Amino acid sequence: MDLFLQQIINGLTTGSIYCLVALGLTLVYGVMHLPNFAHGSLYMMGAFITLTLIKSSGLNYWLAMLASAVALAAIGIAAERLVFHPLRNAPHANNLIAAVGLLLFLEGLAHVIWGPEFWQLPTPYDRVVQFLGLTITQQRLFIVAATLVLLAGLYLFLKKTLVGASIEAMSQDRKGASLVGIKVSRVSMLTFAIATGLAAVAASLAGPINLVYPSMGHIVILKAFVIIVLGGMGSLPGAVLGGYILGLAESMGATYISMAYKDLIAFAILVLILSLRPTGLLSGGVK
Amino acid sequence: MALFTRKNCPALALVILSLILPLVITNKYFMHVIIMGYIWAIAVYGLNIILGYTGQTALGHAGFMGIGAYTAGLLNLKLGLSFWPAMVLACLFTAFLGWLAGIVSLRTRGHYFSIFTLCVGVIIHVVITRWDDLTGGMNGLIGISGPPPAGPVSFDSLQAQYYLVLFFLLATIFVAGRVVNSLVGRTLTAIKTSEELTEVLGINTMKNKIFAFVLATFFAGLAGALYAGYIKFLGPQMCSVSMTFDMLLYLFVGGNGTIAGPLIGSLVLSTITESLQVVQEYRTVIFGPILIVLIIFFPRGLYGGYEILRDRIRRRLPAREAPEGAKEEVC
């Protein structure tokens, strides 16, 4: 029973990280119809920027995370302007290839700047707490709590503010949104900034329990894709739900089925579901 | 069957050039780079058929190349089969798995298909990495034997291996060219342009897409088997997702949906990478932006750019002559 509860906590921790990454991915997909393969490398950049700020200027963990989120939002806006904006009317394969180009560039850049080494992100929350007979590191609790706060904040932003509503309007109907006077370019930039900022926070949260290295985004981005396909591409509740489900499924699978093939669970679920329902689990259909 | 028509001239010249290349190049390392470029090109021709001509962005290609390579290597090491039957079986097995993957993945469309095939590629990579008993896991397979002599011809020397790979490359280009210019090829292009419209015409798009996918994986398997027989060592790194991205790079730099593109891209990029130290160090930092710039300004790559330029010059030449001729008539 203890093992089971422990795995639930672990599942919620990884699920939280998946949630934040998948949310950014699905936001960008909803607004721009772009499967952003570079999202994982933006996540990686976020972790490295936080790490550098803490190591070199001795910045506080919180401030470093915030600065990294701002920096990544700026990088996200630049990427939208320079790479994806010129391709907004191109065939859908082209912006996917451009995203791969961005991924190669960012990863190469990380190799050049930080080298191929593995780093651990220092955290002020490295103590262990006893809770209902379980031993949990503070960082894990912090990840779960921070994600819940961010989710609530994002929800309020999208539902209660005019700017947030314009993002939702764009993802529901692009043409209709521009007809009522919503600036497509501005919303695209904003969406990118939010998505990459979330990725930076997710990476800074995960940095202390996972490691930081140039290809750290690979597996995370692939799983985020699995999540948003399952939850319906462009659906925010789908991304949140899918993130936690996948996190739990993985930690359970790793304990009770096979540790070595843990990473396969996500992809096996995806292949199975897309074989049975080619348009995804929760979506109506694709064109 | 007019072989020496004007249209075939550039192609024939290139074939002759490729045949005398080993006589000119004495540098062994450079020969190796070109052989590897050819092997990648064979795989990229496969990708070109499904992506370039049919418009289906399949992202599991390196996985299928890995299946070809590991099948050939395992048949050789575990069952003692010689290179030739192992190669044939590897191609067929890869195409069979391609068919299986095709019938499920091709029911999805657009981005769903890309993500699906990407996941298929990742699954193949993870299984090859983790199945220690069969594939040797991270240590890989060591000591695969190369092709045994066929009659009086032995394949021990680098030159002989060059010709062997060149033979299969030319065969691949020939088959790809034949398919692309056939009715099937036109159907594939129609699917790329609009799948719904093609379906409305009464064409079974699923059947044609599966054909393209199987052919694509067949070439990937062939490239994998040749890789196994040439390098004689296999590690899981060769079928990782980054390799699929490399192939995308070759295809889009050379020319997506053109018959010469895969060869140009593979050769140009691999020789540039290997010959310039700076490029080797900052490989992806340089190639990533190049890919983005090409996709924005020249979506059909170097060869597509060349075609546009050639057509523009051709159009301008008669246009300049015509008014002069018209004047003379008036006079």
| Largest interface by Cβ-Cβ < 8 Å | A-B, 48 and 42 residues
| Number of DSSP E strands of chain B | 2
State Rg of chain A.
19 Å
What is the SS-derived class of chain B?
mainly alpha
The gross shape of chain B turns out to be globular
Poorly predicted regions of chain A are none
Please give a structural write-up.
The complex is a heterodimer of chains A (287) and B (331). With 287 residues, chain A is an all-alpha fold. Chain A has helices at 2-32, 39-57, 61-84, 92-114, 138-160, 162-172, 174-179, 184-206, 217-231, 236-256, 264-276, and strands spanning 128-131, 134-137. In chain A, a hairpin with a 2-residue loop joins β1 (128-131) and β2. In chain A, α3 (61-84) packs antiparallel against α8 and α9 (217-231) runs parallel beside α11. Chain B is mainly alpha-helical and 331 residues long. In chain B, 77% of the residues lie in helices and 1% in strands. Chain B is built from 15 helices and two strands. Chain B has helices at 9-24, 28-53, 61-78, 83-105, 110-130, 132-135, 158-180, 183-193, 195-200, 205-231, 241-254, 261-275, 277-281, 283-297, 301-330; strands at 141-142, 233-234. In chain B, strands 1-2 form a two-stranded antiparallel sheet. Chains A and B meet through α4, α9 and α11 of A and α5, α11 and α14 of B.
Topology of helices and strands:
The complex is a heterodimer of chains A (287) and B (331).
Chain A: H1 2-32, H2 39-57, H3 61-84, H4 92-114, E1 128-131, E2 134-137, H5 138-160, H6 162-172, H7 174-179, H8 184-206, H9 217-231, H10 236-256, H11 264-276
Antiparallel strand pairs in A: 1-2
Chain B: H1 9-24, H2 28-53, H3 61-78, H4 83-105, H5 110-130, H6 132-135, E1 141-142, H7 158-180, H8 183-193, H9 195-200, H10 205-231, E2 233-234, H11 241-254, H12 261-275, H13 277-281, H14 283-297, H15 301-330
Antiparallel strand pairs in B: 1-2
